[in-house]
Design a protein that fits this description.
The chain is α/β, with parallel strands linked by helices. It contains 13 helices and 13 strands. The model has no long low-confidence stretch (mean pLDDT about 95). GO terms for molecular function: nucleotide binding; oxidoreductase activity.
């Protein structure tokens, strides 16, 4: 299989290297808005990777059998649509697009074309989250009543990234919203969100927050919290706790968890705490991309279609509205907005 890879930034190089290492992949054709950056990425990876002269070359008829997208968020919609119109199965890092209307438009194109779009929610491929989901589904935890999720960046992204990121709820917490849905098998019924600015002014200037807390009431009455911050000096921390009437389970509680116990006999400072998302989810990303190759080849069903990304985005939209208006927002309100925009039909 020949895979076109779009985006030669940090995560792009990692993903392209992971694809090039798969036995089922014969070639990875790397395209980027900057051809020199594409060439540098291909040179670094070597082997089955080569650089395209332009993004257009990747979409040339017969050039590739599938496309993977890890470009800046603002370009996702256009590239998803191009892949659909070219009849190519596509993988895309979240989100589909920056806004609800653009997301719906891109997904309509995929539906019309009848192609496959697998979205990049790598936590679904992490061993801990997978185990938690299994324990919920097989009843080991009893009746689930509480879920706690958190995402903490070790350091904030560059200031220029924030205005086009979609904000903390859509860019960061959307992973927590997705994995809460995936682990529990439930949908959010209402959302109450607050946010704060505890660091650099560029978050506030972009209308964003650097720290947030969200309370979700799921459709079966389960209560879930999701918190996030751009400032966690201890390292990159992503965890989840799922509590039920019989037992509770924690995800991310390992030797690299960037937290020190305050208890006299508790664990001390981890020797090698996670510093980036690539450290924390290395294996999950590789499993996700290996799955995409199988999906693109028609040997496996799509584990995370574009509609799944839309469902997580609806929660993020509710959180953003809740923060802005200082009230709980029902998902019915957001579904009404989707209907007013024509839905997916």
């Amino acid at each position: 299989m020949r895979v076109g890879f779009l985006g030669a930034g940090r995560i792009g190089v990692f993903h392209a290297e992971a694809l090039a290492a798969l036995p089922a992949v014969d070639e990875v054709l790397i395209g980027d808005a900057d051809p020199h950056r594409a060439a540098a990425a291909a040179g670094k990876i070597g082997g089955r990777a080569r650089a395209a002269a332009s993004v257009d070359e990747v979409f040339a008829p017969g050039a590739v059998d599938a496309v993977a997208i890890a470009t800046s968020t603002s370009t996702h919609e256009e590239l998803i649509v191009r892949a659909a119109r070219a009849g190519l199965p596509a993988y895309c890092e979240k989100p589909v697009a920056l806004g609800l209307e653009a997301t719906l438009g891109a997904l309509r194109e995929v539906r019309r074309a009848g192609t496959t779009l697998q979205m990049g929610f790598q936590r679904r491929f992490d061993a801990g989250y997978t185990r938690a989901r299994q324990l919920v589904r097989d009843g080991s935890l009893g009746t689930v009543h509480t879920v706690r999720a958190l995402t903490s960046d070790a350091a904030p992204p560059p200031a220029e990234y924030i205005p086009t990121s979609g904000g903390l709820y859509r860019d960061c917490l959307i992973h927590d919203f997705d994995v809460i849905r995936w682990v529990t098998g439930r949908e959010a019924a209402s959302v109450y969100a607050v946010g704060a600015n505890r660091g650099a002014d560029f978050f506030r200037e972009a209308g964003d927050v650097d720290t947030a807390a969200v309370v979700l009431t799921l459709d079966d009455g389960t209560l879930a919290t999701a918190t996030a911050t751009r400032y966690n000096g201890a390292g990159y921390d992503v965890r989840m706790e799922v509590a039920g009437t019989r037992d509770q389970v924690g995800v991310g509680l390992d030797a690299q968890m960037p937290m020190t116990s305050a208890e006299p006999n508790g664990p001390g400072v981890p020797e090698h705490p996670y510093q980036t998302f690539l450290d924390r989810f290395n294996d999950a990303y590789r499993a996700e991309l290996a799955t995409f190759v199988e999906v693109a080849a028609g040997r496996q069903q799509n584990p995370c279609a574009g509609e799944e990304a839309l469902a997580a985005l609806l929660v993020a939209e509710a959180a953003e509205l809740s923060r802005a208006e200082g009230r709980a927002v029902t998902l019915d309100e957001i579904h009404d907005r989707v209907a007013a925009l024509g839905g997916l039909d």
